[in-house]
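User: Need the bound-state model for thiamine diphosphate:
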Amino acid sequence: MDISFNIGGMAGQGIDTIGDMLTQVFVRTGFYTFTVKDFESRIRGGYNFTQVRVSDVPVHAPVDHMDVIVALTHDAVVGPRPRLVDGGVIIFDDTIAFDDLEPCHFPAPLSRTAKEVGGSVRMTNAAALGALLSVVRFPVDLAEEVLGHVFARKGEEVVEKNVLVAKRMYEVTQERFSGECRHDLSTVRCGPSTDRLVLTGNQALALGAIAANVKWVSAYPMSPSTSAFQEVVARAHEFRIGTLQTEDEIAALCMAIGASYAGARTMVTTSGGGFSLMVEALGLAGMTETPVVIYNAQRPGPSTGLPTRTEQSDLLFSVFASQGEFPRVVLAPRSIRDAFDTAVRAFNLADRFQVPVVILGDQFLADSSMALPLIDVSTVRVDRGVLAGDDDTPYLRYRLTDDGVSPRAFPGEPGRVVVASGNTHLEDGHITEDPAIRDAMAEKFLKKVPAIRDALRPPELYGSEDADMVLVSWGSTWGAVREAVDLLRAGGQSVCQLHFTDLYPLRTALLREVLSGASVSVSIEQNATSQFAALVSMETGLMCDHHLNKYDGRPMTARWVVDRLQGAGIA
Amino acid sequence: MTESVPVLKHPMAKYIREDRQPWIYCSGCSVGIVTGMVARAIDNLGIDFSKVVVVSGIGCTGRTSGYFKTGTYYTTHGRAIAFAEGVKIANPELEVIVVSGDGDIAAIGGNHLIHACRRNIDMTIVCVNNFNYGMTGGQFGPTTEHLRYTQTSPPPIGNVEHSFNLVKLAASSGATFVARWTAVHVRRATKSIEKGIEKKGLSFIEIVGACPTAYGRMNRLGDGVAMHRHLLEVADIQNGLPPHEAELDYETRIVCGEFVDVEKPEYTAVLREAYKKLRG
Ligand SMILES: Cc1ncc(C[n+]2csc(CCOP(=O)(O)OP(=O)(O)O)c2C)c(N)n1
Ligand SMILES: [Mg+2]
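Assistant: Bound-state model below.
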């Protein structure tokens, strides 16, 4: 089973609510879901949709086609029609004036049923849910079991009415829908999944930060990062986390660096435009060896770009941002679950090596959601790195050591003076222009890099390293490319995927092996200039033979990858 | 039936890009009203519309610039004023109007605001104060009142910070014309915008508005109609009051009026004179 539901309409019409309810129904009955939100940068109006993909195996990417559509506006009836599969259905409220009826269209009395049975047009969402489930002949007893839970957030009386509306619409649809839906779920029983936690990428990231004991988050709101900040703010009292919404991103990172100097684990959340403003402070963190985690939920740039869309075009910017040279780490989670782990790893890496760590998410990862198994937070390990001990007297914040890492201490600790400086400094932190010290401090930075690289995750190879073709990918496109590999292999192709989550400093051993072994290599990225392939070639001298680039701001799908490869005659 | 229906053109339609309709704004939002004020002010003055440049930063209010049928620039968040200074200095013949939100102008762009006021560059800044960041879904900003609820200052605590009084800020930074109205004072606000445009110097006009979708809902202030009715009720018109007395308390009293109208050498004029003298 693999069905894609699409709920489309204007911002503010309840698209999210229907999508959430639908997700709940399938999660509660044991199916895997993957939900993406496609919306314009406006609070009301426009054409937006939520896609809920339901499967009996875990999926990590959206699809291009649509099986069942609920359309809340005329545009949403007409616009997505070309993407509807044969045997698909478009359900829409019968008050929408639309006359070009084809067998796939089902004008349904959604708002009327909501009013008549529930007493309020607000329950149109519940009616839509009933119609959706009915069209795919989802077993009514299974639906009954879960509907109560799905509406439970709304208060008892409302729950009952919503259930009634959904049930009534389910029946009305049975009676009146005369079309054919290619999906018939009447025989499904509960699915195999026991996953219960529905999280977005931003939520997973924020929860990972909390599990890693983050104590300070400062941010300025910027889509698509804002919901990560809001997730922390909502839990700040419970977990005793300092949060501050600053006047701009310059202040956000400066405050975080200040809090880190004072001893707190710190993070900032932003998107590319905000990260641009943080660049000066990024250099300060680098120079002063102050750990900080910077979460950049990328969106298409330059400038304000496409505020609510997705792209992977800040990679080289993240690697090179700031004047001067200093070690840093750049990570890109490959999935929603991985966003949690990436956050934890980012804090530990930042503290261990006393460097800024950039997490590159993107709008696709930030806003999509899926059901996950509960996360056992007791397995989270907090590594604060080397702290000054009794023998560190007199205390030297930048003591020259073999591995370049100097024990940390925090201001206010008795007997220790903790001096930091953005100028080139002596071991004690005071500024100097001594050329020998300048050399020593630059080399201190360089020494950290091999150890950082060893602490990073090697790339993941999916499929055999002897495959003829290797697809090189990074970050959130993992699921789409992996699925594309499955499709191609099912068609008899010899292909594998080499996927990176840890991007800088780049681990190159497996990369060299696989790239030089394969007869064809293809980089697949969500940007126009193949930034990762450029990084690979900078670090190894190796080139990918072909590049697939997607830069329309919409998430990648397996179909897109396969079609492009075939279209270019590569696969 | 093929009878043609006569369509009455809106009198301001000549300034507004109808091809961009419908507006992005929520029902009950004040920003559309303010767009109308700016159009009417331009119309009343009869100035050459092709010489008008409308500059805005990013935000719901910022989207206003794109609705004008003249040179407009939707810049980056917070930088509208800095950008506008460049436009004005490069070509002082242009009539530069900045329309943007409270967050854009007083948070991320706060530094540019005070320095442009200090320089006294001839431009008109219309700031829609809806007490929050509308575009990003309703976070608190520099004008959000103490203890109010927003997405990032949720209950039970609310906003721990205190708000700027934009009139006082602009006045003490050196603006030569400063006024405040609410979105329901269309005629008076339009008049002040006209005076601002005519003024040779930096004019700052705050329009207190409603964001029923975000701020209104979080603070149970009612729908757009209720919020605008409230603005009318609590407005206290005090033209000529010293700016440091121009209090703003959403609940009880919003002092409206024109508070500063002083003469001070304007930046581009000073520059021009200086060059003239040097050239002899
Ligand atoms: C550097 C940067 N940071 C953050 C944002 C996200 N952002 C866009 S509009 C906005 C706030 C808008 O609030 P305001 O200026 O009050 O305008 P309103 O939408 O309320 O009219 C923010 C934070 C951005 N575009 N650029
Ligand atoms: Mg605002």
